[in-house]
Amino acid sequence: MTVSTRTDLALLGIRGTPPVNRTGGAGPTDDGHLMIDGLHAAIPRNPASPFSFDGDHVLYDGHDTGLVVQAISRPRFYDLVTDEGVSYEKIAKLHGSNVLATTVVQTCIRYDATQRCRFCSIEESLRSGSTVAVKKPADLAAVARAAVELDGVTQMVMTTGTSAGRDRGAKHLARCVRAVKSAVPDLPIQVQCEPPATLDTITELREAGADAIGIHVESLDDEVRRRWMPGKATVSLDEYRAAWDEAVRVFGRNQVSTYLLVGLGEDPDEMIRGAQQLADTGVYPFIVPFRPHVGTLAVDVDDARAPDPAIVEKISREVAGHLQLIGMSGSDQRAGCAACGACSVLPNVGG
């Protein structure tokens, strides 16, 4: 598939609702998960998009684009329930064809109107009843075992809303990792959290069994951070850099990643330079276009729009070129968003 077409799909979305999809929650959402030309693709669901899929092909205004699409079947583990009657689907979701993902705490101390990240809807899926507030480690272990045995899941992602504690939610992540590793020892797991105030918590996550870690900053521009994520912006970039350095020491080069969102107003050339510098320190810069969707302040209040496709492609190409130069690839991560790659154009340009 051409990079420009993949970029257009990422921004314009696709009509229809694939069997594996997600509405609300943390991170990129309101998407359908597909395999397009053999690569994972998490595509926004947009009833106004010129793209649709018909059988095994992607259409543009009714014309065949030549892209081969495969809808991912609804996983069998979704049909199971816990001893307390909670659907496994409310505990963890299938992302792509082989990634199990969960938000272990579906609330965030920053989710009031003055502190909330404007692109986030972490608590909306909780309000809709499609998930539970806190995932119990034992339940996650049972779901992970079922997802591996019934649906061939090969990696897991655990993220969390930020807690009021100094660990910022990492300690519950560690409890959940231990439980899953006890049930499915060979399942690679990526954990995702804000920089913990006490950096030895990063070692605790590794010792619990986590294979990779995402510490997501979204932007390296302080003005952008204050405007788009006022709560998270109170955690300084120096704290992020210290956490990344410690995480690289503990987890290893290219087992640490961070989201960088295109379309928040950061200068593209500055983003490229910042991403290259991160990569040089061992942190994989996961370039993802900002996705406006209902339930976020970006859409409900700001009426924000998706970024310019040309800018997304430029940044993705230049960052991917640097990653190739230094021998860093998302597919070399043991688990996580970069290992999956569905939300980014980077896999299409060699990143």
From TrEMBL:
Keyword S-adenosyl-L-methionine belongs to the record: yes
Gene3D superfamilies: Aldolase class I
Protein name listed in UniProt: Radical SAM core domain-containing protein
Domain Radical SAM core: 92-332
InterPro entries linked to this entry: Aldolase_TIM, Elp3/MiaA/NifB-like_rSAM, F420, rSAM, rSAM_MSMEG0568, rSAM_sf
Gene Ontology MF terms: 4 iron, 4 sulfur cluster binding; 7,8-didemethyl-8-hydroxy-5-deazariboflavin synthase activity; metal ion binding
PROSITE patterns, per the entry: RADICAL_SAM
Organism: Gordonia aichiensis NBRC 108223
